[in-house]
Write a structure and sequence with these properties.
This is VOC domain-containing protein. Pfam families: Glyoxalase (PF00903). This protein is α+β, with helices and mostly antiparallel strands. It has a single domain, classed as 2,3-Dihydroxybiphenyl 1,2-Dioxygenase, domain 1 (Roll), CATH 3.10.180.10. Helices cover about 20% and strands about 25% of the residues. The strands form 2 sheets. It has a 4-stranded mixed β-sheet with strand order 3-6-5-4, with helices on one face. A two-stranded antiparallel ribbon has the order 1-2. The longest helix has 11 residues. It starts with 13 loop residues before the first helix and ends in an 8-residue tail after the last strand.
Length: about 120
């Protein structure tokens, strides 16, 4: 019935963020026309957290070695809005996107649903 999920990042500079995902993160992509790139994401999972008031949605990239990934991305000129912190459930940091937005990156300590 459902065959996939489509994630949308809103950006103040979509071209710069598309170039970042294409060139820095190296995600494969298709051009849907006019430079409108759609990227293949790594395996994914979804969690539902309780919220007070209106809910919100967040996107986090996951990795097996956050310190190694941060070092590799730093060598590519990536800026981080938040350094690596221990959250108990994993090690978390925040990538600053060229368009001004932030993107979470973490090394999970919890079981990964995408490995099912």
């Amino acid at each position: 019935m459902i065959t996939g999920a489509h994630v949308i990042l809103y950006s103040n500079d979509a071209d710069a963020d598309r170039a970042f995902i294409r060139d820095v993160l190296g995600y494969p992509h298709i051009d849907a026309g006019g430079g409108w790139l759609i990227f293949k994401l790594p395996p994914a999972e979804v969690a539902v957290h309780p919220a007070e008031g209106e809910g919100r949605h967040e996107l986090y990239l996951m990795c097996d070695d956050v310190h190694g990934t941060v070092a590799e991305l730093t060598d590519k000129g990536v800026e981080f809005a938040q350094p690596v912190t221990d959250q108990g459930w994993g090690l978390l940091c925040t990538i600053r996107l060229p368009g001004g937005g932030d993107l979470g990156l973490y090394e999970p300590r919890h079981p990964k649903a995408y490995e099912l």
